[in-house]
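Example for tutorial group B:
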C-alpha cells in the first residue's frame, strides 16, 4: 500500500459563521472545501462550518522516504503561501485564528514520521504566524 504524506493549510470557521473564499483573501484557489450546508469531498453530511484547504501531497513507496516526502510537501506548501504573502493576508482579514498548517499521512511505522524542522523551515513557519499540527497514522499490517 502506498504511503501518503501531505502538508495542508486548513481554514475552518466557527459553526454557523461563513468564511470568505481563500482566493478572495489570500489569492490562492482552494484545493478543496465546502461552505456551510455543502457536502465536503470525502464526507457524507453537510458541513456545519466553512472549511477550505490548500494541500501538497505525495506518494512514496516505502517508509524510509516518508519523512523526506513530508518535508518536501511542507516546503512546497510554504512556497505557495509565501509567494502570496498568505500569513499577512490572513491576519489582515482577521482569519489567522481560523487557519493552521497540518502535516500528516499514513506510514508503515510511526517512527518514520520524524520530521526535521530546520532553522530555516522554522523561520518560514514562524513568519506565517499559524498553528502547526501533526496528524500521522500507522498502517496496520503493512509490510
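The residue assignment follows.
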Amino acid at each position: 500500500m502506498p504511503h501518503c504524506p501531505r502538508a495542508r493549510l486548513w481554514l475552518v470557521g466557527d459553526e454557523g459563521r461563513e468564511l470568505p473564499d481563500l482566493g478572495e483573501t489570500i489569492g490562492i484557489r482552494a484545493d478543496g472545501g465546502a461552505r456551510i450546508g455543502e457536502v465536503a469531498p470525502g464526507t457524507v453530511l453537510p458541513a456545519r462550518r466553512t472549511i477550505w484547504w490548500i494541500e501538497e501531497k505525495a506518494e512514496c513507496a516505502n517508509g524510509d522516504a516518508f519523512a523526506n516526502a513530508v518535508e518536501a510537501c511542507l516546503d512546497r506548501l510554504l512556497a505557495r503561501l509565501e509567494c502570496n504573502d498568505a500569513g499577512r493576508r490572513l491576519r489582515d482579514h482577521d482569519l489567522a485564528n481560523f487557519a493552521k498548517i497540518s502535516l500528516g499521512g499514513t506510514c508503515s511505522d510511526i517512527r518514520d514520521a520524524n520530521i526535521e524542522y530546520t532553522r530555516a523551515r522554522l523561520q518560514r513557519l514562524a513568519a506565517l504566524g499559524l498553528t502547526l499540527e501533526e496528524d500521522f497514522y500507522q498502517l496496520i499490517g503493512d509490510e
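The CA atoms of residues 3 and 62 lie 7 Å apart. Compare this with the pattern of hydrophobic and polar residues in the output above.
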